[in-house]
Amino acid sequence: MQKEHNLSKNQKIIFDLIDKSGGPMKAYSILFNVQKKGIKAPLQVYRALDKLVEIGKIHKIESRNAFIACQNSSCQVSKATAFSICESCENVSEISNSKLSKYLSNFSDDSGMKYSKYNLEFFGLCKKCKSK
Amino acid sequence: MQKEHNLSKNQKIIFDLIDKSGGPMKAYSILFNVQKKGIKAPLQVYRALDKLVEIGKIHKIESRNAFIACQNSSCQVSKATAFSICESCENVSEISNSKLSKYLSNFSDDSGMKYSKYNLEFFGLCKKCKSK
DNA sequence: ATATAAATGTTATATTATTACATAACGTTA
DNA sequence: TAACGTTATGTAATAATATAACATTTATAT
CATH number of the domain that A15 lies in? Predict the structure, then answer.
């Protein structure tokens, strides 16, 4: 069970925006969209994003410098994330596949390193783009 | 068998630097280091980096905005990459584990999307940092 | 030789993210 | 409720990462 976090004002505004957008959003696009709500500076956005990432409400798509709302209600606070990214339309969706997450969470190689976190990004063409 | 690529002058200079460094390097640190060799502008660095990534001689560590020489002689031109990253000392190494790469290369979910590429980054503490 | 593609050089600028510092709101517990 | 510590906010400046646009040169393949 995930801990309830009471989002602050800025955190709520920014989370709602990302969540409603249904896809990944970039920090300065978020900034532009929330200026009418009084959030005027990049740092205000980045601080909210940092917190939202920390508590697992959003994830950063590293290869795109963009942020997406967590689509996985049982998300383990961003410790194990996987995304599929269409290289044509840039659609992103979160993969929740228990076999995959088990496999990766338990993965260990011969380095003797124990991994506490991973992020996986798959790339390809989505159905729509493939059929064009 | 990997195709031989004849690196251009700038590409060679930049690849050699990254390769000799033994770890990930950031673009502007590369720029600083090659200025004595006549490479003066960011774009010259980024162009060489783009090409080196394209042909699989280096990989980008997305979560760190850094570039590392491919440590895997049989690397499939950057279509399938996995790294382990120490969150304390920032040491990065490329994971080459055939089971893992087979598993991920063949992975497909119920989206009907066929993935042509993936990048996986594991995070944790390396042996040295763990024992501190 | 000549056409074509690839690489280079240069300037300017766009995009992404953080530092530093001051203030306000919130939550606890004495 | 007052005092304290923590978290969040506001604001300005700047650092770090990356690309656009354009001119020229070098390499490669007929």
Answer: 1.10.10.10
